[in-house]
Amino acid sequence: MSYQPRRRELLAAIGGAVVTAAVGLPARPAAAADVYTAYLMAHFTGESATGEQMYFATSTDGLHWTDLNGSQPVLLSSVGEKGVRDPALVRSPAGDRFYLIATDLRIASGKGWDVAQHSGSTSLVVWESTNLTTWSAPRLVNVAGAISGAGCAWAPEAVYDPAAGNYVVYWATITDKARIYYSRTTDFRTFTSPQVYIDRPGTQGIIDTQILEIAGSAGGYRYVRASGDGQITIEGSNQIVGGWTRLGDLSGLGLTGAQVEGPILHKFNDRNEWGLWVDQYSSGRGYLPLTTTNPASLSAYRIRGTSEYALGASRKRHGTILPITQAQYTALHGRWATFTTGVNRIQSYNFTDRYVRHSNLDARIDAGVSPLADSQWRLVPGLAGASGVSIESTNFPGYYLRHSNFDFALAPNDGSTAFAADATFTRVAGLADSSAVSFRSYNNPTRYLRHYNYLLRLDEITTATGRADATFRLTS
């Protein structure tokens, strides 16, 4: 969760959606026998201006990582505290849907850690997707609001429980100390009442629990979990709720809860080996990988040397790793990897000192834009069809130029078909100069993006002035 310098003191000292009953999921076919060949990591980077947002990185070997989106966020939270930390990626049992859940917290806004712990958000932030590249708008689910004295809801995770036919969602909440609570859900919208899941003896707190299901079991256990409770403690069980046995901790490797947090457990795709990543929060160095051939045996873990892994350009803090198929890897890179060199400014053809920019979510052309990033865009494959283009903000990733009633604004992608169509254009030769570019509407193909009185609008073009207003040049 990244408690920063207060973490040791916290563990020593303290040791949306309506929450309703959630029934079992209907019977589903087993997830398709997909062959996983790569990995997706979701993470945050720290307490910078955009560090508490959603970042993605990919890997083909599970040890060497490439940042997507030019090491910039891929999703921004527009709800709650407008910042997210500690993301968890969850695949549905049928493999047809993904959920991304995270802590609703933004320390960079000036909120202190004491307030965040004891008077913070009791909600989680949730996105969902069918393909990992197009995500719904974020929403809040108030999972911990019914807990007496709850001060926060941190570091959420989820695991599918086949015995019950639903997901067990669990997180840390601080009352007199930090405990892990859980609820059940089928849709990440309605949840059962929260229950205590893990409560360490005395004043000892616990956070950052992650559970991994082991196909065929390891050391006699179907599930292994890692938690931060003064150590990074490893436990095993044959059921998700109850029956857990302490197997040991990482102190024998010189790693204690005063040094590392935010454990990630995952299996390597091509071999019977598992990874355990721990966030070196106390030294600010990001994740460190350990590997093992038996996650239930502490003596089998070994720390990887610095020459054996690479984290990419951005610092990676408490996150999650999901195995993905080659098709998903290709789609993720098609969606975000090319952005490293795909930043453009859109210059007016007839007012050459002015550029398309957003200001308070309105869209216009201005000179002397400050900050410059308000006039920087990525032309990405069209949300309504890859043959078209959509125009995405660089400093508000996930926000696009979208027309509504022929007016333009910068709006977050809500995942709807209507939004995709409104935010997609056909790039054509410039109406006033074929060496430039014009943008024809995807769903109103007789209309073009143009400026009028410096504001952007969608118009039918019938005059020379209109053709000039609807013509632009792409610059770096």
From TrEMBL:
Domain Alpha-L-arabinofuranosidase B arabinose-binding: 345-473
GO molecular function: alpha-L-arabinofuranosidase activity
Domain of life: Bacteria
Transmembrane regions: none
GO biological process terms on file: L-arabinose metabolic process
InterPro entries per UniProt: AbfB_ABD, AbfB_ABD_sf, GH43_arabinanases, Glyco_hydro_beta-prop_sf, TAT_signal
UniProt protein name: Alpha-L-arabinofuranosidase B arabinose-binding domain-containing protein
